[in-house]
């Protein structure tokens, strides 16, 4: 019975450890995914602005319609077309890297979720075992108490008969 209680405690701690570990891992991955998504949006916005400026700069070079406000500001600061193009390429590469990282994190998150789903039956089985052992312990404790009460009654009867 003490061994069963020990086993139940061990199984409880194992279940809690798995829950905690998976919960922390999932939360960590979700946090990373959120961070990467935010970075991705920032890079996409920067890329969009750079494309607008580059487009405006091309129009300036060919004496096409007036530049937008941001393009005018960049042109006034003396940024060359080659600098803009270099920045554009750099941002494009950064965007590809960010997307790749986001996909990797999503794959990891899905993998952990599948692993946790795969362990659900084992966890449920542990819970059933724990419930079974708890019920068995309760039954045994009840029987022990009944036997003690009967023993005490028999001892009282024996003592009374001796006197």
TrEMBL record:
<dbReference type="GO" id="GO:0006406">
    <property type="term" value="P:mRNA export from nucleus"/>
</dbReference>
<feature type="coiled-coil region">
    <location>
        <begin position="26"/>
        <end position="53"/>
    </location>
</feature>
<keyword id="KW-0175">Coiled coil</keyword>
<dbReference type="GO" id="GO:0005643">
    <property type="term" value="C:nuclear pore"/>
</dbReference>
<dbReference type="GO" id="GO:0017056">
    <property type="term" value="F:structural constituent of nuclear pore"/>
</dbReference>
<protein>
    <submittedName>
        <fullName>Uncharacterized protein</fullName>
    </submittedName>
</protein>
<feature type="coiled-coil region">
    <location>
        <begin position="123"/>
        <end position="157"/>
    </location>
</feature>
């Amino acid at each position: 019975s003490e061994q069963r209680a020990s086993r139940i405690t061990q199984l409880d701690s194992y279940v809690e450890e798995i829950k905690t570990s998976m919960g922390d891992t999932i939360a960590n991955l979700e946090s990373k995914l959120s961070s990467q998504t935010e970075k991705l949006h920032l890079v996409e916005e920067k890329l969009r602005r750079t494309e607008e400026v580059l487009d405006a700069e091309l129009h300036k070079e060919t004496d096409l319609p007036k530049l937008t406000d941001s393009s005018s500001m960049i042109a006034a600061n003396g940024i060359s077309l080659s600098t803009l193009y270099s920045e554009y390429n750099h941002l494009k590469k950064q965007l590809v890297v960010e997307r790749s990282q986001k996909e990797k994190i999503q794959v990891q998150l899905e993998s952990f979720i599948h692993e946790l789903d795969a362990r659900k039956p084992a966890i449920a089985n542990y819970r059933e075992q724990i419930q079974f052992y708890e019920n068995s312990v309760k039954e045994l404790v009840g029987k022990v108490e009944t036997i003690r009460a009967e023993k005490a009654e028999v001892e009282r009867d024996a003592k009374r008969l001796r006197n």
